[in-house]
Amino acid sequence: MITVYSDKHRLRNSKTELYGGQLVEPYERPSRAEIVLERVKKEKLGEIVKPRDFGIAPVHALHDVGFVEFLQNAWEEWLMTGYKGEAIATCWPARRMSNRIPEFIEGKVGYYSMSSETSISKGTWEAAYVSKDVALTGAEILLKKENKGVFSLCRPPGHHASFDLFGGYCFLNNAAISAQWFIDNGIDKVCILDIDFHHGNGTQDIFYEREDVLYISLHGHPRNAFPHFSGYEDETGYNAGEGTTYNWPMIPGTQFGRWSENLKESFEKIKKFDSKIIVVSLGVDTFENDPISFFKLKSDNFISIGELIAELEIPCHFVMEGGYDIDEIGLNVVNVLQGFEG
To answer: SS3 for 137?
Structure first.
């Protein structure tokens, strides 16, 4: 299996995260991608290629232009204030407040943010820009070379980034941008299968009213897990998109038996939809030792996940999402990919 990777992900190296009432070293850090890459090389998974630049048009196809301009300029605007730390949201347009965009950067950060754990730091835009190219290069390889599967080792991740919001460590929605690229290049129906522990609120938001992209997510129940305000069973799409969103929220302590039952039931929806390509939002934070999650999947279970997805016999674009700086992140990611390849 071809892996697409860029070491420019290291430009995203923030020092600040708000977690559990404390400022901590971010869980989403450069070593995540490097541990995965080491495992890819060790297991001789296949060729590792660099991304090509697809420009800004694929980003504008799904994300608000004003939001994109904000991401491009936020760090420089933050520095101009004289602030010493990284840019973190401190206020939002909450219920019954004005929804007008402020001029001052503190207000802008809050307007375009969905959560306060994710700071904007030097190199954030540059890394996010290349991350979408890692995704798009993988999509192009899958389509043009007619591969069974391709792995885009994206960092920063993307599935929490919505039409006009960043957060959850995400800035541009790599999986969504990939799915749109497939649509724009002749694939009439695409499924995004999100197996990250956290609900992909951003991906759901982007495609919620569309009938050409099926979004399926298996995740921690929003009553108990971030992002808390999306991912319930009754969120099924709207207008033309009614019936093209399916959520499988699960409770703390969920083990692979229950999790895999929901995955298999999801396959029936993929078959009914007649998806020609699957974009897999590949998060391995469902692992039992992940520091910020509460499912109980074991390393061997990730082999089974890959094997199960392969049974669909649909080309898959694996796009890296979560899994947080534990020794097993490389093992678990590559287990999925090896299981898929058989």
So the answer is: helix
- CA angle (304 as vertex; 235, 253 as ends), nearest 5: 55
Give how far the C-alpha of residue 325 lies from the chain's centroid of Cα atoms, to the nearest Å: 16
The SS3 call for residue 48 is: strand
C-alpha angle 216/126/54, rounded to 5°? 65
- DSSP string covering 105-122: HHHHHHHTBS-SS--B-T
Which of these is catalytic: 63, 160, 221, 317? 160
Report the distance separating Cα 135 and Cα 281, nearest Å.
11
Q: What is the pTM of this model?
A: 0.97
Which CA distances in Å does 299 have to 85, 112, 336, 339? 38, 36, 9, 12
* Domain 2-14+25-63+125-341 listed as CATH 3.40.800.20: yes
- What is the Cα–Cα distance from 88 to 120, expressed in whole angstroms? 7
pLDDT of residue 146: 74
> According to the model, what pLDDT value does residue 293 have?
97
Query: What ranges make up the beta strands (E) of 157-266?
Result: 190-194, 213-220, 245-250
At 128, give phi and psi (nearest 5°).
-65, -40
The pair of structure tokens assigned to 333 is: 């990611």
Partnered with residue 279 across adjacent β-strands are 192, 317
Q: Can you give the pLDDT at residue 130? A: 98
Q: How far apart are CA 104 and CA 181, in angstroms?
A: 34
> Would residue 9 show up in a list of annotated catalytic residues for this protein?
no
The whole-angstrom separation of Cα 176 and Cα 198 is: 16
Q: What is the pLDDT of residues 46-74, one digit of tens each?
A: 999 999 999 999 999 999 999 999 999 99
d(CA 256, CA 247): 17
What stretch of H or E contains 328? none
Residue 235's H or E segment, with its range, is: none
Q: How confident is the model at residue 82 (pLDDT cuts 50, 70, 90)?
A: very high
